[in-house]
Design goal:
binds zinc ion, two-stranded antiparallel sheet, alpha+beta, four-stranded antiparallel β-sheet, 6 helices, about 50% helix, about 140 residues
Length: about 140
């Protein structure tokens, strides 16, 4: 599935899981029009979470509830150790490769990590939802 398809699907899911809600009358309006005041300017009501306009907050809430965000530091460390080996010898000590890079050059570590995250985004392997990243295959499972 493409990123765009996933966004569309998540939006559909957000509509499915919520009910239109008239904030002025404070009632649910499943038909999409408020029976009390006739307004169609309705918020979305998500059971147990709240009421607000739009669906972005619904999507964030569903995703946070159902999925585990990616630990980018962990994923990047794994990639580094797969590429360069798990450990390095520096003089008389041996350290984990990722720990050594992080300690010796934290700026290079962060730069490389950001690039790696960007590349995962470009490959459409991960997607940002509400400030956290999630695997596309996890999002598809929703
Ligand atoms: Zn109303």
């Amino acid at each position: 599935m493409s990123l765009q398809d996933i966004k569309t699907k998540l939006k559909e899911l957000a509509f499915e899981k919520t009910t239109p809600f008239c904030y002025s009358c404070y009632v649910k309006c499943p038909s999409g029009i408020c029976k009390s005041c006739g307004s169609d300017d309705l918020m979305r009501h998500l059971e147990g979470v709240g009421v607000e306009y739009g669906t972005d907050w619904v999507i964030e809430s569903i995703v946070e509830e159902e999925l585990e965000a990616i630990d980018l530091e962990e994923v990047f460390s794994q990639m580094i150790e797969e590429s360069y080996g798990e450990g390095v010898q520096i003089g008389c000590i041996s350290k984990s490769t990722s720990l050594a890079i992080k300690e010796l050059d934290p700026i290079a570590w962060d730069l490389a990590k950001d690039e790696y995250i960007d590349s995962l985004g470009e490959d459409e392997s991960i997607m940002e939802v509400g400030g956290d990243y999630y695997w596309i295959h996890d999002l598809e499972s929703l």
